[in-house]
Amino acid sequence: MILLFLTPESFAELRVFFLVGLWFSILVSWLLLVYLVLCFHDPFFLLHTQLFCVLRLLRTRRKTERRIYVRQTGEKMKTLMVFDFDHTVIDDNSDTWMPSRSDSSRLGEEFLQERPLDGVHGPSHELYRVRSVMETIPFTAGMTDLLTFISEHKSTIDCIVISDSNTMFIDWILHASGFKAAVDQVFTNPARFNELGYMEVRCHHSHDCDRCPVNLCKRRVLERYLSEQADGGVEYERVFYAGDGGNDLCPTSCLRGRDVVMPRKGYTLEKLLARLEQREDNASLRAKVVSWSSGTDILEELKASMQP
Ligand SMILES: [Mg+2]
Ligand SMILES: [Zn+2]
Q1: Does the predicted TM-score (pTM) go above 0.85?
Q2: 86 is catalytic
Q3: Contact 252, 261 (CB under 8 A)
Q4: How many angstroms does the Cα of residue 251 sit away from the middle of ligand 1?
Q5: For all residues of the chain together, what is the average pLDDT?
Q6: Confidence (pLDDT) at 290
Q7: How confident is the model over 36-55, as a mean pLDDT?
Q8: Nearest-ligand number for the alpha carbon of 207
Q9: Exposure pattern of 209-234 as b/e (b: 16+ CB <10 Å)?
Q10: By the 8 A CB rule, do 99 and 177 touch?
Q11: Extents of the domains making up the chain
Q12: Alpha-carbon distance 55 to 149, whole Å?
């Protein structure tokens, strides 16, 4: 009966709609069938997928509850400050600082003549001297003001360091400067003195990113951190990423449009980002790019973003 009132055009549209619906139903049926076959062959597959769905639901619920709480209480969403360490927080390279400070010392050469992943670097009885030399490494201009501001606003600013240095150097330097409390977490290569009394540095993690060195992909670290924070109900209003090197490019691709990537002026990251911005097919860089020369530039940007 309805067909009598249809014009040829609307009849054609109805036919297209019907065919699309039919193909969609067939596709869904096939996917369902494949899923059932997989579940039948491997009961763990069923268990894992169900567990995955439950966790996703819980996460979504937590996020929604958190959003409602923030809206109701007027609580400000947090900002995340991410730092590279060498040539960003400190104005030098912690891996090469030792030899340049101890030319007369065999330790300096032995300690750092190889990349951290090569393992053995120096005898432990010289540890106290290595530590005292490392503690003299200068901070980048304005960085102490920036870290002081972060320390004073810990309720609204989280701060992490992602670095290809190592846990011992970063811990010594932050501890000596009194800024350890400003930084919530440090993600870097774990270091320790082994049984033979030599310093041993291992990979931070293993990953499948073909753009980064085998020991560390800063993007994977940042993605995981953001995901874990989201699981705990913390979502960031804005993420700032400050760095200088080539390995700081990969993490910029997981930043959103409202985030800010801050490359140090005149350093590799700035050049790589400029090249990326010129590319027409550039889809990986969504964040705003703001170069900096001193920590004060970063501080101004951070303060401006926190204005109501
Ligand atoms: Mg660096
Ligand atoms: Zn990577």
Answers
A1: no
A2: yes
A3: yes
A4: 13
A5: 84
A6: 98
A7: 79
A8: 2
A9: eeebeebbbbbbbbeebbeebeeeee
A10: no
A11: 2-72, 78-305
A12: 37
146 band by pLDDT with thresholds 50, 70 and 90:
very high
The structure tokens listed for 169 are: 């150097």
Catalytic choice (86, 95, 158, 259): 86
Spacing, Cα 211 to ligand 2 middle (Å): 5
CATH fold for the domain made of 78-305: Rossmann fold (3.40.50)
The total of other beta-carbon atoms located within 10 Å of residue 239's CB is 22
Q: Are 201 and 191 in contact (CB under 8 A)?
A: yes
Q: Which ligand is nearest to the CA of 94?
A: 1
Please state the rounded mean pLDDT for residues 206-220. 96
Question: Could you give the CA distance from residue 240 to residue 26 in angstroms, rounded to a whole number?
Answer: 46
Q: Which two tokens stand for residue 193?
A: 């003195």
- Identify which of 190, 173, 85, 186 has the alpha carbon closest to the alpha carbon of residue 132: 173
Residue 94 Cα distances to 10, 86, 140, 179, angstroms = 71, 6, 13, 17
Residue 136 identity: T
Distance 94 CA to ligand 1 centre (A): 10
**How much distance in Å is there from the Cα of 189 to the middle of ligand 2?**
15
Residue 84 a catalytic site member: yes
CA–centroid distance, residue 280 to ligand 1 (Å): 28
- Any alpha helices (H) in 3-42, and if so which ranges? 8-41
Query: Which ligand number lies closest to the CA of residue 205?
Result: 2
d(CA 189, CA 201): 6
Distances (CA, A) of 283 to 51, 194, 252, 255, 278: 33, 45, 11, 12, 11
166, containing H or E segment: strand 157-166
